[in-house]
Write a structure and sequence with these properties.
By secondary structure, the chain is α/β, with parallel strands linked by helices. Helix content is 35%, strand content 21%. It has 13 helices and 13 strands. The structure holds magnesium ion. GO terms for molecular function: metal ion binding; O-succinylbenzoate synthase activity; racemase and epimerase activity. One of its GO terms (biological process) is menaquinone biosynthetic process.
Amino acid sequence: MKITGIELRRVAMPLVSPFRTSFGTETTRDALLVHVVTPDAEGWGECVAMSEPLYSSEYVEGAADVLRRFLIPALPGSADAYAVGRALEPFKGHPMAKAALETAVLDARLRASGESFGRFLGAARDRVPCGVSVGIMDSVPELLDAVAGYLDEGYARIKLKIKPGWDLAPVRAVRERFGDDLLLQVDANAAYTLSDARHLAQLDAFGLLLIEQPLAHDDLVQHARLARLIGTPICLDESISSAAQAAAAIALGACSIVNIKPGRVGGYLEARRIHDLCRAHGVAVWCGGMLETGIGRAANLALAALPGFTLPGDTSGSRRYFTTDITPPFVMSDGHLDVPTGPGLGVDPLPDVLDAVTTSAEWIAL
Ligand SMILES: [Mg+2]
């Protein structure tokens, strides 16, 4: 199966409300879609890089550039996702750009053979429990209203974004208002240092499932030190860029839980390797989110259905982020989302909606 050409399509989708983390505020999702065309089938991949290099070093414009300049010209002759991974390996970094391209090729291949992403990856269930990530708010009452709304919708787990100055008080307030049974965790997006250990240890009182990425992305050793100073289990996100990095983190005792984001690790094949590694070591994993459209959400649901994903992920319903998604929306039922079962991703962009949010499109013939 040869690739005829690839379309790079930029979309701008307004978020239902601004999403604030320790590193910035998003009001519109500026996403890059990779659309692979072959004679037999077409495939889609979503690049999860943000507009600015704040979550990681990647950003949308840079991802588009490395795709057109280096990654797409290096594609192998046939549309084989494993061969794509090998062909892109010599290029350092850019995991989100690589992931989008590999996913689009894999999607085309699976659509051609009639196999779903979930079946290909090894999904063990047909629906997954949904958690929701709640951004930093201006006030605790505003946060409590937001959490109450999500719990009314049926979310099974709440994650609060935290940063210095917005940590103990919001966590205490949510715990007191919604009780000890609420599955609650926090995400610092690397906003603290090891010298904050005594402060972070005060979170131990609130029975959190985990604290995600408290320290810098390149601080594995310090995360291992922190793990001995606080009771809350440490989960790593930004630090885990590959299966090798996950192996190092586990060996060091830097984390006891891993947030797997396919974009951050270079694609779904590497994401599955991390899942397998963690499962073999008894390390729980869950699927993170990057404000994905329905394209990325569909693939994440397939991944989150693997047997080692034992904690609810950030795989929320579409309306958590978008009034109108570019695919038919993922609608939560009883706190769960169904894993798509159709060929490939199992969802297609709606042409009219996609065109309406497209800001640029570029065709690269191969
Ligand atoms: Mg995170």
